[in-house]
C-alpha cells in the first residue's frame, strides 16, 4: 500500500513552484462550531490572488466547512457558529453591515454534484446577471451569457441550443455550465468543493484545464480528495486534519518535502 502510494505521488506543475501572489483572502483564528461540535480550530490562512489554492485532507477534517466560511454559506446552517476574522481585500466579510447577497456575487461557488437550474442553458446563465442588474438590454444580457459560456469552454458545444434545458447536458457539461453561471456575475473568487468527484476522467481533465485558465482572472479555492488533482491544478496547498490546518505552502513543497509527519503520512497514503 505504502510503496504504491509513494510511486503514484503526483508530479506538481511548474507553476506550483512560483512565489505566491499577494493575498486576496486573509483568515485569522477562525473557529467553527456545529452546536457543540468544534469543527474548525484556530484556522489562519492567506489565500493568494489570481492563483489556485487546494484544500486537501481526510474526509470530515473541515475542508468544506472552511470553504463555506469564505462566502458565508454556513449562515444557512442553523446550528453553525463562526468565530474569528475573514477578510477579502481587507474587508471583513462578517461585518454585520455587509450585504451577503453582494458577497456571494463576489465569491461564487461550484458544488460537488452539478446543480443547474431546471431551465434553459441561457436562463441558467442569465439569471444571476439579471437579478444583479448587470445588463441594460437584451443584447447586453446575450453578450454576458456568451462570454460566460466562452470562459467556461462551453460555448462551442451549446451555442446552437441555448434554449435546451441545462439538465439535459452531460455531467461534465453541466459542471461547466455551473462554472459559467458562477462567472456570469463577474466574481472575484470562485470556490469549488470537489467539483470533479461526480465526473469521468475526460470531463475531469476538461475542468482541470479550465481551472488553469481561470486563474488568470479569478482567485480559486478548490477542495479535492485527489492529491493528483491538487498537484495538477494548484499553486498552493493547505493540508487539513481533524479541524486544523497542519501546514500550507507551495504545492510542490507540500508534495515533495512536507514539514509535518501528518502531511507526510497523508500524501504517502498511510491514512485518509
Ligand atoms: N451541517 C452540519 N451539521 C453538523 N455537523 C457538520 C455539518 N457539516 C459538517 N459537519 C461536521 O463538521 C466536520 C467537518 O466536516 P466537513 O467540513 O464537511 O469536512 P470535509 O469537507 O473535510 O470532509 C465533520 O465532523 C462533520 O461531520
Ligand atoms: Mg467536504
Summary?
With 272 residues, the protein is an alpha/beta fold.
What does this structure look like?
The structure is a single chain. The strands form 2 sheets. A 6-stranded mixed β-sheet has the order 6-7-8-3-9-10, sandwiched between helices. Strands 2-1-4-5 form a 4-stranded antiparallel β-sheet, covered by helices on one side. It has helices spanning 2-7, 63-69, 100-106, 121-131, 138-151, 155-158, 171-183, 201-214, 227-233, 251-256, 261-267, and strands at residues 23-34, 37-48, 52-56, 80-88, 91-92, 107-110, 189-193, 219-223, 236-241, 244-250. It has a single domain, classed as 3-Layer(aba) Sandwich (Rossmann fold), CATH 3.40.50. 44% of the residues are buried. It is globular, with a radius of gyration of 19 Å. By secondary structure, the chain is of the alpha/beta class. α4 packs parallel to α7 and α7 runs parallel beside α8 (201-214). The chain starts with a helix and ends in a 5-residue tail after the last helix. Magnesium ion is lined by residues 63-64, 193, 223.
What portion of the residues fall into strands of 2 or more residues?
A: 15-25%
Largest sheet: 6 strands, mixed
One letter per element, helices H and strands E, the order comes to: HEEEHEEHEHHHHEHEHEEHH
The radius of gyration is: 19 Å
CATH topology: Rossmann fold
> Can you identify the CATH class?
Alpha Beta
Amino acid at each position: 500500500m505504502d510503496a504504491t502510494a509513494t510511486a503514484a505521488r503526483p508530479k506538481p506543475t511548474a507553476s506550483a513552484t512560483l512565489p505566491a501572489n499577494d493575498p486576496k483572502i486573509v483568515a485569522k483564528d477562525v473557529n467553527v462550531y456545529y452546536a457543540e461540535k468544534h469543527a474548525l480550530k484556530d484556522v489562519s490562512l492567506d489565500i493568494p490572488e489570481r492563483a489556485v489554492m487546494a484544500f486537501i485532507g481526510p474526509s470530515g477534517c473541515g475542508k468544506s466547512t472552511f470553504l463555506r466560511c469564505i462566502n458565508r454559506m454556513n449562515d444557512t446552517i442553523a446550528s453553525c457558529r463562526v468565530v474569528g476574522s475573514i477578510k477579502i481585500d481587507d474587508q471583513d466579510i462578517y461585518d454585520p453591515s455587509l450585504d451577503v447577497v453582494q458577497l456571494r456575487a463576489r465569491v461564487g461557488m461550484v458544488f460537488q454534484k452539478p446543480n443547474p437550474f431546471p431551465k434553459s442553458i441561457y436562463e441558467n446563465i442569465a439569471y444571476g446577471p439579471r437579478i444583479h442588474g448587470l445588463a441594460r438590454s437584451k443584447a447586453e444580457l446575450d453578450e454576458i451569457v456568451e462570454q460566460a459560456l466562452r470562459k467556461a469552454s462551453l460555448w462551442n458545444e451549446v451555442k446552437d441550443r441555448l434554449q435546451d434545458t441545462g439538465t439535459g447536458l452531460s455531467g461534465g457539461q453541466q459542471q461547466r455550465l455551473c462554472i459559467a453561471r458562477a462567472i456570469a456575475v463577474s466574481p472575484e473568487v470562485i470556490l469549488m468543493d470537489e467539483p470533479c468527484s461526480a465526473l469521468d476522467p475526460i470531463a475531469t481533465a476538461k475542468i482541470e484545464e479550465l481551472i488553469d485558465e481561470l486563474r488568470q482572472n479569478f482567485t480559486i479555492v478548490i477542495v479535492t480528495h485527489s492529491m493528483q488533482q491538487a498537484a495538477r491544478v494548484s499553486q498552493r496547498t493547505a493540508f487539513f486534519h481533524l479541524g486544523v490546518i497542519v501546514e500550507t505552502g507551495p504545492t510542490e513543497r507540500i508534495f515533495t518535502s512536507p514539514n509535518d509527519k501528518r502531511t507526510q503520512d497523508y500524501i504517502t497514503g498511510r491514512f485518509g
